[in-house]
Amino acid sequence: MNAQLNQTVPTKLRDHPLSAGKPYPLGATFDGAGVNFAVFSEHATRIDLCLFTDDGRKERARLPLLERDGDVWHVYVGGLTPGTKYGFRVHGPYAPEDGHRFNYNKLLVDPYAKRLFGKLKWSDALMGYRVGSPRGDLSFDARDSAFAAQRAVVVDPSFNWGDDTPPDISASDTVLYEAHVKGMTARMPGISPGQRGKFLGMAAPPVLDHLTKLGVTSVQLMPSQAFVDDHFLVKQGLRNYWGYNSIGFFAPEPRYMTNHGIWEFQTMVRRFHEAGIEVILDVVYNHTAEGNEMGPTLSFRGFDNKAYYRLADGGRNYINDTGVGNSLRVEHPMVLRMVMDSLRYWVEVMHVDGFRFDLGVNLAREPWGFDREGGFLDALRQDPVLGRVKLITEPWDLGPGGYQLGAFPHPFMEFNDKFRDDVRQFWRGDAGLTGLLAKRVAGSARQFDHSGRGANASINFVTVHDGMVMQDLVSYDRKHNEANGEDNRDGSDKNFSNNLGVEGPTDDPAIRAARAQRKRNLLATIFLSQGTPFLLSGDEIGNSQWGNNNTFAQDNDTGWVNWDRPDDALLGFVRKLTQLRRDHPVLRQNRFLHARPRHTDGIPDLFWRKPDGSAPEAGDWSDPDWRALSVEMRTASATPDYAASDDVLFITFNAGDAVEITLPDCEDDCPWELILDTARPKDGPQSVTGTVTVAAQSVCVFARTGD
What is the DSSP letter of 72? Predict the structure, then answer.
């Protein structure tokens, strides 16, 4: 088959002179006169550049990359312009037992492709082995995969940024908001139909207006780099909605573009910046869409399987610390270079403001396991470009020793699942959670207060894309994932949810009121705790996913945010929380509170209180009946005098019955003001004296108004 292809495809282009080109930069680089192509392969024996017609259908030339500098192969083609569709075919040994899976019959996407064209068409021809062969992946498939594969596209990344500057939001002032490009915009009123589900729709005026009024400083976009719909989903008529199945680390996802130009992503970022909002990308460098040894040959596997992936059993099988078939071999210098080049590209060319690393532990793995001083983390932290953007990680993977909460170095922020679980259980009414709640409210210092890290290192979340949304946490006792086609086996069973009387929607006013109260308590705890508050899109308006806690394939009304019937009262309450956080610097401190005397006045920065005003003793922290925790917060003791504040807050978290609490230092002219009560969210500030009654299942915040 390959011999026939070589005979029928011309190897030269008229009016396109060839020259050696350069081994840098990697990928396809347009310089105004032509395009330089450079790709990496350590073990290949030959690499061919395939050029296609404008419609991407017909291969019009095949050019061998005759120049090789080290392990970088390159050629320069004069006269080529942006928009050129191309791919590669790579020759080398097909020896899976030794880790090599070269198959020159498979058209490959450039690992550095800046844009992809066409939709992947699932076919057995995409496999390097013969599907159904008794030899399995040891067999060899000689069919050409070009009809089913995507093409890379040469781009001109220039863009008129004008006076665009990054908002540069400090970690202490950050309010994170996770959004899905399509899920956020598919049903939002005011967005033109042609921009729904697109980057341009994501930055449309209705979205920016909503986020600005909400008080969001930083939008964390779910995967927006090019990804693939898994074959098993396509066969069920489903799609990979979330996008954690990357195939292009430099290319924006084509389904989110209208004209397939990268300028659309750049325009989105510029509009966010004009609104003072940062753009954080959720990135998936831990694995690729090629899966395990029975997966397709789309790009990396065909270029150099042994270099790009972590292999086991002599090289035939894949180390699967990610749970999705393979793990990218980031410890290889050229793979590390690719990841670093990708990150810098998104900062320098696309102007993003930071990254959230999916399964971040996997990226920090060395042959001996997780290493906080390993190659990837060291390279990232020393980089002059990446050192100035936000770095956020998911501190776990599925491999040995894969749970590393708190182990990442400065300046990483980490998703704190202990906060999620402890706060859910406390408000569900589980016994013995008060002591754990105190740790979370104080910023989880045991996990994060080391190595110069700040209190904002803890990302305080109760809900995120994987798991139940806020409305469902208070409406369902169990998950309802039947629509996913896996007999409700997928998704976590550890939700710590409670339906408060009825499974699912109800018209019962008492249950609806209790659910509304529970949501306010959960949200208030996020914003009143030390650390970085995190919101899932739709939670602020009571969006439901009908109990589905794993909507990864639900590209429909279940996965999208339903803006048709927003809970305006809840939306107003969340706005009140973000404003309260802005108004009170004690809630957004960089230094931890450890009940130590302050330099300014000798008063400790933190007091824990029982309802009667007394300090809890050691045995109280394990008392299962203690449900009302109060805390008095001041500026952290380690804060320099010039940064100190007179701000003082007294907060009560009451997961039990109504309780009478004693305010600190309370005399007849007690200088306290009740500024937030989740039981009466519409009430304005009111002066309080002596003792006050805190309603059952509620949070109250008191501010000191002066002596």
Answer: E
Look at domain 2-153 and name its CATH class. Answer: mainly beta
The vertex-201 CA angle with 196 and 205, nearest 5°, equals 125
- Residue spans of beta strands (DSSP E) within 374-428: 390-393, 413-416
Q: Are the C-beta atoms of residues 310 and 318 closer than 8 Å to each other?
A: yes
Write b or e for each residue in 561-592: b if 16 or more Cβ atoms lie within 10 A of its Cβ, otherwise e. Answer: bbbeebbeebbebbebbbebbeebbbbbbbbb
**Amino acid at site 212:** T
Residues 6+ apart with CB under 8 A from 517: 678, 679, 697, 698
What residues are labeled active site?
358, 394
CATH of 587-704, one of 2.60.40.1180, 3.10.170.10, 3.40.50.150, 3.40.50.300: 2.60.40.1180
State the alpha helices, DSSP H only, in 397-466: 417-428, 434-441, 445-448
Residue range 388-435, pLDDT digits in tens: 999 999 999 999 999 999 999 999 999 999 999 999 999 999 999 999
HSE-up of residue 210 (Cα within 13 Å, Cβ side): 23
CA distance 181 to 418: 28
Instruction: Kindly report, residue by residue over 605-639, the tens digit of the pLDDT.
Output: 999 999 999 999 999 999 999 999 999 999 999 99
For residue 415, CA distances in Å to 432, 459, 463, 705 come to 24, 5, 11, 34
Question: Could you tell me the pTM of the whole model?
Answer: 0.96
